[in-house]
Amino acid sequence: MIVSTLPAQHYLIADSDSSLHLQTCLNQLLKALKTPVIFSTLSLFFRTIFSALWLFIFLGFLLLNIFFMILSVSHSLFTICKDAAGVAGNILAFGLFVSPLHTFRRIIRNSSTEQFSGLPYIYALLNCLICMWYGTPIVSPENTLILTVNSVGAVFQLVYIILFIIYGDKPTKVRMLGLLLAVLVLFAAVVSGSLQIADPWMRRMAVGLLSCASLISMFASPLFIINLVIRTKSVEYMPFLLSLSTFLMSTSFLLYGILNYDAFIYVSFCSTHVFAIASIFKSYFQS
């Protein structure tokens, strides 16, 4: 009986000795950690780590704020340049709108349209109406300056067409009246048709393509009178300053379209540069 219980007692004593030894080691480690030198060293280490972490976070937020500040300033300068190009285009376009006043004073004084053509004003009215619709918030919300310039232009072109109808001969009256009604019907069809397109992106694409076509047609309209200039050997019907103003206006809106990321605007006015340059050279060499 004694022989059988000795191993168990031996293991119990060994286990108690191991536990006591482990507890002694832990107590000695805790006492060592509580010594001033080691405690202060660990405290300094952790304070340094936390301070470095907070400094890193602070510098990160500071750099992020500086980045967004620079981005905001650059965006503001970009917007100013875009608006400046659009305003310049509006001013130059207004000069073009009032440029035929001398011609219409002559028409009113002589009570005749003489050899002046009314087709450029028909094309200009169609262009102004379609581009005015393109600039509305329903189609493209970012093109307010396109809306303003074409609204003013549509009023001027309508007045000029009415004067052609009043002072033209009978065939001119009938032709101009018919063309005016056709333009109004076409514009009404464009508006009603585009409103049927539910997708805003598709609506903008459709009206934008039409505005491109109308812009190119309007700027090509002065080419109708190049034959008249060549035949009469006079630039009376196509003044040099008018052609130069057209070129400057198209340049302004070309920049506006580029800065506004609007392909319909800058592609249209890039194409019309060809017609404007052709008109300038023709007027210059004939003069």
Summarize the structure in words.
85% of the residues lie in helices and 0% in strands. The longest helix has 63 residues, at 36-98. Residues 1-6 and 8-15 have low confidence and may be disordered. The chain has one domain (36-285). The protein is built from ten helices and no strands. It has helices at residues 2-33, 36-98, 101-110, 119-134, 144-167, 170-195, 200-220, 226-232, 240-259, 263-286. It is elongated and about 125 Å long. It is mainly α and 287 residues long. Helix 9 (240-259) packs antiparallel against helix 10.
Beta-strand content estimate: under 5%
Q: What integer value in Å does the Rg equal? A: 41 Å
- Report the strand count: 0
Shape: elongated
Give the number of helices.
10
Number of domains: 1
Which structural class is indicated by helix and strand composition? mainly alpha
| Average pLDDT, all residues | 75
The major beta sheet can be summarized as: none
Helix proportion of residues, in percent? over 70%
Q: How far apart are the termini?
A: 139 Å
Keywords: Membrane, Repeat, Sugar transport, Transmembrane, Transmembrane helix, Transport
Membrane topology: Multi-pass membrane protein
Family: Belongs to the SWEET sugar transporter family.
Transmembrane segments: 44-71, 77-98, 119-139, 145-167, 179-198, 204-230, 237-258, 264-285
